[in-house]
Amino acid sequence: MEARLQSMTLREKVGQLFYVRPELLDTDIQWTVNDDLVAISLQEITTKMRNLNKDYPVGGIVLYAHNIKNAAQLSRLISQIRTLNGQPLLCIDEEGGRVARIANNDSFNLKKYESMEAIGNTGNLQNAYECGKTIGIYLHCYGFDIDFAPVADVNTNPENIVIGPRAFSDNPAVVAPMVTSYLQGLKDAGITGCIKHFPGHGDTKADTHFGYAQSMKTWEQMKDCEMVAFRAAIAWGCQMVMTAHIVAPNVTGTDVPSTMSPEILLEKLRHELGYQGVIITDSMEMGAITQQYTAAEAAVKSIQAGADIVLGPKNFVEAFDAVVAAVQDGTIAEERINQSLHRVLKLKQKSN
């Protein structure tokens, strides 16, 4: 790996730190909200996208429901993605329940799950394992590498509109073993899981897809609740953790989103919890980020804070160019990029 790292150009290095939706490789696609992309329904890699990708290599591609028509089309699309510059890993949000990009498509005859809450309510860890393995088997069959699942949040706020039944329970003692059982199911099927959303999105009212959301908990309170599941998943060997865009002022003393907080990502997740794997941001196109930061600012700040992968910037070219420029002018040390690259390439080795 060291030899490969030494041979890589700066642009090749930076590209590995971006996981994007395929539409971001086409600068002519203008969109404001996800429904705009649904209307376009991009389902192939075009020549224009390939041309941009020559100069903008990418470490991962994330597919959404509107990118997937049926099994034959998905197979073609994944074959096209496999030839892109950067050798991107294939990622998807396939949690089971309401967030299942493939299983909720009627063109696929796949097992559907009511929710993770319903599985948590059974109290049977085998059900969580079976869910993870079932999902993992069909994702692996279609050619995916990473599933942005399971949700490790503890759904303690009944007014929570974004997590709710996506979480296994409102009890951390239930959530933790369910999360590790699900992760084991994915692993046994050949898929890398990703726990989310650190440091916990379960005690919020607002939805970070649309704007500002906060948790008023102290770190001590989080350690007794949210961290129970995250600690368990880290001890199990989870290779990827996704950040939340929530603000935690009683932990950080600021209103900076956790995705851009070195206190959250470095002091708490890396140092205190001892996590050594990949930190990936939640999607940077979400309102909690775009209402306050440009794509360039968000990408640079999240990497400075300790994130390894920038997921889904609203403008890929702008974000990519900003990170390259930040390294060139010394705002981000190239050694800092190399640290993330070590983790990202290690993940890639395990996924291939």
Describe this structure in words.
- The structure is a single chain.
- By secondary structure, the chain is α/β, with parallel strands linked by helices.
- It is built from 16 helices and eleven strands.
- A six-stranded parallel sheet has the order 7-6-3-2-1-11. The protein has a three-stranded parallel sheet with strand order 8-9-10. A two-stranded antiparallel ribbon has the order 4-5.
- The longest helix is centred in the middle third of the chain and has 18 residues, at 125-142.
- It starts with a helix and ends with a helix.
- The model has no long low-confidence stretch (mean pLDDT 94).
Mean pLDDT: 94
> Could you give the order of strands across the largest sheet?
7-6-3-2-1-11
Q: Estimate the strand proportion.
A: 5-15%
- How many strands appear in the DSSP assignment? 11
Order of helical and strand elements: HHEHHEHEEEHHEHEEHHEHHEHHEHH
Q: Outline the low-pLDDT stretches.
A: none
Radius of gyration, taken over Cα atoms and rounded to an integer in Å: 19 Å
Q: Characterize the main sheet.
A: 6 strands, parallel
Count of helical stretches:
16
- SSE class: alpha/beta
Global morphology: globular
Indicate the percent of residues in helices: 40-55%
- The end-to-end distance, rounded to whole angstroms, is 14 Å
